[in-house]
Amino acid sequence: MSFFDKLKDMAKDTVKTSLHTTKDITQSAVFKAAINPFIRKYGQILAFKIDSRNKAMLFEIMLKGEARPVRVNVKKYQFFNKEDKFFVKIVRVESNRFWIDAMMNTFIVDLEIELPKELNKPIQAIM
Q: For position 95, what pLDDT does the model report?
């Protein structure tokens, strides 16, 4: 492989990564806006970041009654659909609050959670 071929491949990889990052930033903003109305009675999402390449999400939520935001790092997720319904399955997750970490790893990990229909379009964008 010539120097120019290597340079061309590097340029392609850089463009791919840049486009992927831009897509994730856009999708993160859309998803954050779509989710906030559903959790309004519990709190508000302050930050939300999707890494679709690694199937990971990181979000910060300010829960009502909490003094500081809760940080949840979904290290592995799966979105899928069955019979025109969308589901998410959390495979690995960590939180900066022990009780949330314990609760999610006990009750949420590996559970197929049906998502509201209003989230169908944002989910389809990141599948």
A: 95
